[in-house]
Amino acid sequence: MKHAGTGIPSGRPSWRGAFRNAWKAAGEFLDLHAAEENRRLDEEVRGIASSSLPILVHKRDKLLAAEAPDDLPGTRWRIELERYVDRILWPLLSGDLAKHFEARGHVIREVDGLVSAEAARLAAGPHVPPVTWRVETGWAG
Questions:
Q1: Taking the mean position of all CA atoms in its chain, how far away is CA 67?
Q2: What is the mean pLDDT of the chain?
């Protein structure tokens, strides 16, 4: 702490500085904790959604292509994505990770990013339609 008007240190600790440092440390801890929870949530979402990615990419492409000119871009895909997260993915997430409602938006953005990345990866290679029926179909050919 400095003497008033002189700029010379007084030698006494500043309670404001101590409080500011404690507040900053608490904020950094909470940021690290939130980042760790988000990392764990992202890993779990990737693990669960990975088996559904080909179908989600197919649905995304189909819904984006079927949009009417007066529709908001991506509205149908957003509705389908929210349905997937709410009905399929959300019930499979760990309770401690999915306890906050704010996590739902994060999960939806994460799945959308995964689907977009998978669509770009598939666009670079040969087109193979997704398998939507798990019964052997070799007899049909």
A1: 25
A2: 75
pTM of structure: 0.59
| Predicted local distance difference test score (pLDDT) of residue 139 | 46
Distance (Å) of CA 45 to CA 15, 27, 56, 59: 44, 26, 14, 19
- Across the range 28-44, mean pLDDT stands at 71
Interval 34-61 mean pLDDT: 85
- The answer to whether 112 and 89 are in contact (CB under 8 A) is no
Across 6-15, 20-29, 117-126, the highest mean pLDDT is recorded for: 117-126
Three-class HEC string of the chain:
CECCCCCCECCCCCHHHHHHHHHHHHHHHHHHHHHHHHHHHHHHHHHHHHHHHHHHHHHHHHHHHCCCCCCCCCHHHHHHHHHHHHHHHHHHCCCCCCCCCHHHHHHHHHHHHHHHHHHHHHHHCCCCCCCCCCCCCHHHC
Spatial separation of the C-alpha atoms in residues 95 and 99, rounded to whole Å: 6
C-alpha to C-alpha distance for 58 and 55, rounded to whole angstroms: 5
Distance CA 55, CA 130 (A): 6
